[in-house]
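Human: If only I could read backbone structure tokens as easily as an amino acid sequence. Take your time, and here it is.
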Amino acid sequence: MNGTNPIFLIALRSVLVAIAMCAAVCARDAPQGGTIDERAAEIVRRHVDARGGAEPLAAIRSLAFYGDDGPDAARPYMIKMKPHYSIAGCSAPDCGYAEGFDGTQAWETQPRRQRAYVARGEAAKAIRRAGAINFPFIEPRDDAAAVRFTGSVAIDGKIAERIDVHMVDGLDQAYYFDPATHLLVANDRTVPLHARPPHVKQRTYFSDWRPVAGVLYPFHLETRRLLDDGSAGDVIESGTVARIVANSIDDPAVFAAPAVHPAPLTQLVLDLYARAALLDAGAILQRYRVLRSAPAFAATDTESDLTWLGYELLKDETVDKALAVFDQLLHEYPQSSSAWDSLGDGREQAGDMAGAITAFRVAVALDAHAEDSAAKLTRLLDAGGRAQ
């Protein structure tokens, strides 16, 4: 599949946590299991003071983020509310994608395609983390199992104070603070870029701190790959928030998944995804083909639905099922560059690098503007496959 999510969604999944604080910054032994050591607690205390103080931070109940052009200037592209509500993207009927956490479960939707479904796996974890108003080191009782100071280290040639956070959901993160300003400089973690393997070492930089409701927030975020030597590599995503509005939202209903009315084939694909754990690849395709072969659906365009199903199965790490779906996709759309790109992604995740290179080559041959496919092809060739 060519293309990526909008910049704010990539930034959302990269940063993983919100950018507000609350008054529980000095807890060293949180009663529900999270702990923070003495030195880490002092670093966090100084950080909170630099941001504006515990009381203004505690008063933040919700945050709405706006872009600087297009519809994002008029409506927020991301909203989050205590304790763990969030919505990112656009859920209006004419929009392409949105995701959220309704206080109980994570969901995703493509309104234009009339798809809505419960997120699972890495996607659900990332959406759940993104809904937190507080950084995990602020309230370890909620999100972090342990927070500890690990020393003063050099980051990009400058000294920073580092604290490590082990999340309840298993994620390990490192946070770096400027010892002079006490503001957060960067955050390291290893996560999948699109909620599926491979996991990528990343570093997000925080800058352009501005006041909102008496509290400082970073308005610019830049995420880079983290190299093995600890230095920052190429940019994964970069973006600047135009404005942040505090405490404009107080209704949990805002964060519910939107209602959709999928066409029969789209509904079938959604049902197959919901039951995928109970079906093997053959059963999935057999049920799809029965409905697809009906005269009423002979002319239906299913490329988007099959592509979606294949990638969701890749997220589940059921690669054999995903590859079977992508094979069906190519059977129906053999001249689609996007379909060949999807097959390449599936083969790469399966460890078939030669097959992935072949698929990406076909994708590029079919569409000279398939920049994502070309980048993937170059990456694999540079990794040792140029003889293939």
About this structure: The longest helix spans residues 371-385. The chain has two domains: 7-254, 264-385. The radius of gyration is 22 Å.
